[in-house]
Design a protein that fits this description.
Radius of gyration: 22 Å
Shape: elongated
Number of helices: 8
Structural class: alpha+beta
Order of helices and strands: HEEHHHEEEEHHHH
Helix content: 25-40%
Number of domains: 2
Strand order of the largest sheet: 1-2
């Protein structure tokens, strides 16, 4: 389900017998491993929402890092009677919107790593076949760009809509 939610029609998912029924093929575990066990911005959010104004997203991520992860200053009195200020890094608990949580002891480095793609698109890439087959056709349709899906697999958008004819009808202006 996680792969489906992130990519709409991932590489190792095939339409099953009936609307909304799918069959998972070998290899899905590797694609799931690429996005599990860490904080990340889901591909659909990154590609359809945050890509529209990455500068503002970067400003927001930096402000959250500064506000929520600011080191805690504590004054410690030594045996000699001299006080010292100690700065301790803060770890917070993150409650993801749609994933298993809470995620405990998140450090500022962990949080900012989820947004490192804003500075360099080559970092934190998602499995290419998942993107090409499932999400890229939706991105192309939304932004009017050319579909880059592998022709041998058909358009990911066509495959996605084949399981949801009502949605296909709305997307195609009412014609099925």
């Amino acid at each position: 389900m996680t792969l489906l939610i992130n990519y709409f029609f991932p590489e190792h998912e095939e339409p099953g017998d009936g609307p909304g029924v799918v069959t998972w093929t070998d290899g899905w575990e590797d694609n799931f491993a690429a996005i599990s066990g860490r904080l990340f911005v889901p591909p659909v959010v990154r590609s359809l929402l945050y890509a529209q104004d990455p500068g503002s997203v970067r400003e927001w991520a930096d402000s959250v890092a500064a506000d929520w992860f600011a080191p805690v200053e504590t004054t410690v009195m030594g045996e000699d009677g001299v006080s010292t200020t100690v700065r301790t890094p803060t770890a917070v608990t993150v409650i993801p919107a749609h994933w298993d949580g809470p995620v405990e002891n998140v450090r500022v480095e962990d949080f900012l790593a989820a947004y490192r793609w804003l500075d360099d698109q080559s970092l934190d890439k998602f499995p290419e076949a998942d993107m090409a087959r499932g999400l890229q056709p939706v991105i192309d349709a939304v932004f009017g760009t050319k579909t880059r899906a592998d022709a041998s697999q058909g358009s990911g958008l066509d495959l996605f809509f084949s399981s949801f004819p009502t949605l296909a009808s709305r997307f195609n202006g009412g014609s099925e």
